[in-house]
Amino acid sequence: MPFERFVQSGRVAHVSHGPNKGKLVAIVDVIDQNRVLVDGPASKIPRGQMSLSNLHLTKFRLKFPFTGSTRVVRKAWAAEKIDEQWKATVWAQKVAAKEKRAALSDYDRFKLRRAKRVRNAIRTEAFYRLKKAAKKAKANKVAAKK
């Protein structure tokens, strides 16, 4: 099947727009083709409707009864350890790195630029050293054949 993430009860989603941007919610029920009922017990988002255009579906899915209460969603969330699973994903790590970069001061950006320059100089030197050694080995191999 081409799709793996469906809009369904129990699906965990990442909020992409609005006042709760960046938080995780669980879809409790589907209202219509554009809106869903969400609940975010761990991220302190009260139960309410949210547009699907403001959500990005994750690979996580909670098992709880259809239209379960906030207490049921909270228990399922804790049982599945969604927060730990989310922090382990590449997606969450990229979001954290983006936030960290955005929080850098002018001096921090300067230090980062200098560190990258030093790193690139070391990398370039190592590359040319290996290239020279490979060229020398190839010349020796050609000379040995003659």
From TrEMBL:
Keywords: Ribonucleoprotein, Ribosomal protein. One of its GO terms (biological process) is translation. GO terms for cellular component: cytosolic large ribosomal subunit. InterPro entries: Rib_uL2_dom2, Ribosomal_eL14, Ribosomal_eL14_dom, Translation_prot_SH3-like_sf. One of its GO terms (molecular function) is RNA binding. Residues 46-120 form the Large ribosomal subunit protein eL14 domain. It comes from the Eukaryota. It holds the Pfam family Ribosomal_L14e. Belongs to the eukaryotic ribosomal protein eL14 family. This is Large ribosomal subunit protein eL14. It comes from Trichogramma brassicae.
